[in-house]
Design brief:
With 303 residues, the chain is an alpha+beta fold. It folds into two domains: 2-216, no CATH class; 229-298, no CATH class. It is built from eight helices and nine strands.
Length: 303
């Protein structure tokens, strides 16, 4: 996956090819190096955490997901039935619109929240030179997705384009009367409308699942290490007011609200991750030392 970042805060244009093992970002101060690193971290973190349940489209209950897929399948079936026999009907726009809706529900809330946490205000993401909001383009193997912004800086999917040509056709043949073709090769063909609606629903949901798989491809764990002095200083300085309050009288603290300083989400995640480091081997060694001392006392070796 390749990510192009345009008009993101101070960034005019920056790109990351995630198939590459190493990226070197260099340049003068205040040109957006940290903005770019923060942006990619927030995106990958939320891509990794996508929880998408395909089975929700096929529940017997009237869930929103099942209503959405039923609506799209009926529209496609109607287009094919009203077309001339043996005439290919382009279905890309219909499928792409549905994918935008589903991806918006899956990935945008987390990205918006991460941007808000990291950059304090979404208005900070407007480019200071062009006076335009950001444009994030994701080049995938079978598609291209663009995340833009509304007038308030809130992330929206402005475009999704499949590289595959999806076509439907009504044939004279009975066994494959209703057929779907991908890149001019038959994907499936069935004899009746009932089977067609089910197969088409599976096909469209499969396109969404494949897109999410590509967004998550090669993302194992996401870590942020603040290697710059400014990042470490910012985080360490944030602990100063916390420690100052904690050193006061405990009763005083219980009756007073402590206002925690804000940290960019990547830095906050870094310190949270530090707190989860496992020290089980240290605890085991400490227990062995205590056990040895107790045994020595018991046998009169230590007075």
């Amino acid at each position: 996956m390749r990510i192009e970042i345009k008009n993101f805060g101070p960034i005019s244009n920056m790109s990351f090819d995630l198939k590459k093992d190493l990226h070197l970002i260099y340049g003068e101060n205040a040109i957006g190096k940290s903005y770019g690193a923060y942006c990619v971290y927030c995106l990958l973190k939320n891509f990794k955490n996508i929880n998408y349940d395909n089975s929700s489209f096929f529940y017997l209950g009237r869930s929103q997901a099942s209503r959405d897929i039923e609506h799209i399948v009926k529209n496609v079936l109607k287009k094919i039935k009203t077309s001339n026999k043996n005439e290919f009907i382009n279905l890309n726009s219909v499928v792409e619109e549905f994918i935008i809706t589903q991806l918006s529900l899956s990935i945008l809330p987390g990205i918006i929240n991460s941007f808000q946490n990291t950059f304090s205000s979404l208005s900070n993401l407007k480019n200071r030179y062009s006076d335009e909001y950001y444009n994030l383009t994701f080049h995938l193997d079978n598609s291209q997705m663009i995340i833009g912004s509304d007038e308030y800086g809130k992330a929206i999917i402005t475009s999704f384009t499949l590289n595959n040509a999806i076509q439907g056709i009504l044939k004279d043949t009975k066994t494959t009367k209703f057929s779907i073709y991908t890149n001019h090769k038959k994907t499936f063909g069935v004899a009746n409308e009932k089977h067609f609606t089910l197969e088409l629903a599976k096909y469209i949901v499969g396109e969404i699942a494949f897109t999410i798989k590509q967004l998550q491809d090669n993302i194992n764990e996401i870590y942020f290490l603040p290697a710059s002095r400014s990042g470490l200083y910012q985080a360490l300085n944030a602990f100063t007011p916390i420690m100052a309050e904690m050193t006061q009288n405990r009763f005083f603290i219980q009756n007073r609200n402590i206002e925690l300083p804000s940290l960019p989400e990547p830095l906050a995640d870094y310190f949270i991750d530090l707190s989860t480091l496992k020290t089980s081997h240290l605890n085991k060694e400490f227990d062995n030392i205590i056990s040895t001392i107790e045994n020595d006392i018991l046998h009169g070796k230590v007075v």
